Neuromedin-K receptor (Lepisosteus oculatus), 405 residues
Amino acid sequence: MSSSINGSFNITGNMSNQFIQPSWQIGLWSIAYGSVVAVSVFGNLIVIWIILAHKRMRTVTNYFLVNLAFSDVSMAAFNTLINFIYAIHNEWYFGQHYCKFHNFFPITSVFASIYSMTAIAVDRYMAIIHPLKPRLSATATKVVIVSIWILAFVLAFPVCFYSKTRLFPGRTLCYIHWPRNKDSSMYHIILTVLVYLLPLGVMGITYTIVGITLWGGEIPGDTSDNYHEQLRAKRKVVKMMIIVVATFAICWLPYHIYFIMTGIYRDLNRWKYIQQVYLAILWLAMSSTMYNPIIYCCLNSRFRAGFKRAFRWCPFIEFSSYDELELRTTRFNPARQSSMYTVSRIESSTTVVFEPNEGDNPDCARKKSVTSRYTSINGCSGNSTKTSRSSSFYSTTNTSVEDYS
């Protein structure tokens, strides 16, 4: 996940620096990489703020989006520029300790990103295909997120352990000194399977099943009068996440292919244009960190309202009262309940009649309590004091459509 992983490329052949570029190329690449860092850092920080600062946005799906945004902003802030500087000059300026971190952290970050997306896919699958089964609680969600990072640290530990800096005539290199030459290729194959093929396979299966259910038939058990509204809301969320996953897959596919190919065919590392190819592939992979905030803003009304609020100081951005309502108010409208929203409603009206003139009517010379489902029953005529009380109770077995829109 970093330029220094191809350590064999950096230390083979002539130790002089053969990758010096003209200033105009360096300038163009600097603009390209700088744009990625700026958009990714500010965009993902705003996403985190939108979710954590607004209670209405704190759902299971959005907690995983916070983890995804955190891993993306960390990758952009701590790795993208360093990776670019090392790739452009092929010389390491940042010391032994940061060399280890530079190789270690990108793997953990990408692992956390893609498995956060996988967790969202599984959560959407359970919510739509098995709506009556219990959903993840806030505590369980946090446990899943912590587990993802622990597994990411374990997977990335070998590159941290074997990362070294070495001083050659005229320059210093940061590379991974594997015990055996074939270990590098084996590790990249394992890495490709665990942080690319496996999670994408799981998401492909879950979203295919969910897509067939949402676009090809009715949701199981749905009897809501507002069925089509619920369906549209769920489709929007699933469509947004499919686009997020597809973007990630496209951005990282050339990167994995590059390292597998250069590990197998080492002569490619000496090709005249390999540096330009690598910079282009690295840019595409790093750019995956900046697209998600744009996708959220374009496809989700609440995130769009959040971005409007964040940029309301701009003269051409209008933050309306409707946008404020989108972020602040948790609307409750029975007509907008989820398709699997089970409502148990008990309405009672109790009338208690006190008759002061007991002698006038013995049949009414007592306190009467009558319970009816919808109407109050008057015990008798005359001077009486009536007290009515009604109550309504709601119990739910699933979330409302608010969680899907």
In short: Residues 227-264 form the longest helix (38 residues). The chain has a mean pLDDT of 78. The beta strands are 163-168, 171-176, 348-354, 368-372, 385-391. The domain at 23-216+229-299 is CATH 1.20.1070.10 (Rhopdopsin 7-helix transmembrane proteins).
